[in-house]
Design brief:
About 20% of the residues lie in helices and about 35% in strands. Strands 5-4-1-9-12-13-2-14 form an 8-stranded mixed β-sheet. A 4-stranded antiparallel β-sheet has the order 3-6-7-8, with no helix packed on it. Strands 16-15-27 form a 3-stranded antiparallel β-sheet. The longest helix has 17 residues. With about 375 residues, it is α+β, with helices and mostly antiparallel strands. About 45% of the residues are buried. The chain has 3 domains: about 110 residues, no CATH class; about 140 residues, no CATH class; about 90 residues, no CATH class. Helix 1 packs across helix 2, helix 2 crosses helix 3 and helix 2 packs antiparallel against helix 7.
């Protein structure tokens, strides 16, 4: 839960120089394409050509004619907010964030809000957002190393937009201070600075919830090339506890046709759906959709995202049928099936395996090293 009820004074700086020393901070795009955002409440000090003064309470920031309007005043298209008092946070739309916040206008009425903070503080928020904080300590340590590795390896992924990583599941879920928990803080501290490496370089340590008994090669899921450390392994531990080890899902003809059309694949009313190829682990790789006015061949993972990742929990389909105007999928696991299986990590950690053993099993030929 978010920490509420405290005052949050912060400094509004009309500069863009770094505010941290040592390890390069990470920049997370927490909001993009919004027209307004609120900052505060708290005592706000501004610095700029108009001199220094204090604000009280929450302020609304708007994009206006290539500049920013904060309250009743106008500022350049980019402003930076940093806390005045050590240990305090900046609130954005009511949610507290560590570090500094940068707000940028695109000149067309939209804002991008970027949180710049230390890597370890970022990982503190990601781990409990991606893995239940009540899970065994060794599983939480494994997730800490994975989150840190992914952040380091993918730094600058959204460089053209002014930040390193997004704040959603498309990168890693990041919720700021409100997601932090004591148990995951301990796991992050215990692994401070550690990353997974392959031939000395940090790896893009992708992960998923439940593999259904077998992970897959990255190249078989995303056509992403031959990634040596992202190779499929047998992993049946999740069978013991994962509630989504086996599942079934239904989607109507009309709903499927509508979702395909919205994604740019207008085949009319779907009449046929079949798997045309499989990955090495047995997941669907490509599907062929035939409708009343056309046909399309789609990568199975893309098809899953079109239909809905919470409906089709994976592409590990064990059965596909059409009954009473609905397509029925029987499947196993949850997620793309590459890298760490989180439910396997939970079970093996409970059995006494250490986090480094867990990680080097799922990421082949890697080593855990300090940055």
């Amino acid at each position: 839960m978010a920490r509420r009820g405290f005052e949050i004074p912060f400094l509004l700086l009309l500069i863009t120089s770094p505010v941290f020393a040592g390890e390069k901070p990470v920049r997370i795009g927490i909001l993009t394409g919004v027209s307004t955002v609120s900052v505060g409440p708290g005592s706000v000090q501004t610095a700029g050509s108009k001199g220094t003064r204090h604000w009280k309470g929450r302020k609304t920031v708007k994009a206006e004619k290539g500049k920013l309007r904060i309250g009743d005043e106008r500022f350049p298209r980019k402003v930076r907010l940093a806390p005045i008092d050590k240990g305090k946070f900046i609130k954005v739309n009511g949610h507290p964030y560590r570090g500094a916040v940068e707000i940028v206008s695109d000149g067309k009425g939209r804002l991008t809000v970027i949180n710049e903070l230390e890597l370890e503080d970022y990982v503190r928020s990601v781990v409990p957002a991606e893995m239940p904080h009540s899970w065994p300590p060794e599983a939480l340590k494994a997730q800490s190393v994975v989150a840190r590795s992914y952040a380091v390896a993918n730094r600058g992924r959204f460089g053209n937009d002014g930040y390193d990583l997004c704040a959603t599941a498309a990168c890693q879920v990041y919720d700021g201070v409100q997601s932090e928990k004591p148990s995951t803080d301990k796991a992050v501290d215990a692994t401070r600075g550690e990353v997974l490496t392959f031939k000395g370089k940090p790896v893009s340590a992708v992960f998923h919830s439940c593999c259904g008994g077998q992970t897959d090669d990255a190249k078989d899921v995303w056509r992403s090339g031959n990634t040596p450390y992202l190779r499929g392994v047998r992993a049946r531990w999740c069978r013991e506890e994962c509630p989504f080890y086996q599942w079934k899902a239904d989607i109507s003809d009309d709903d499927l046709s509508r979702r395909l059309r919205a994604a740019g694949h207008d085949v009319g009313r779907v009449e046929s759906l079949r798997i045309t190829s499989h990955t090495g682990a047995g997941r669907a790789y490509e599907v062929r959709v035939t409708g009343s006015s056309g046909a399309a061949t789609l990568q199975a993972n893309a098809f899953r995202l079109i239909v809905g990742a919470r409906l089709l929990r994976s592409t590990f389909w064990t059965g596909l049928s059409h009954v009473d105007g609905k397509w029925r999928f029987n499947g196993k696991g949850w997620g793309h099936g590459v890298g760490l299986c989180q439910w396997c990590a939970k079970v093996t950690a409970g059995q006494g395996y250490k986090y480094k053993e867990i990680l080097t099993y799922f990421y082949r030929n890697t080593k855990v090293k300090a940055l």
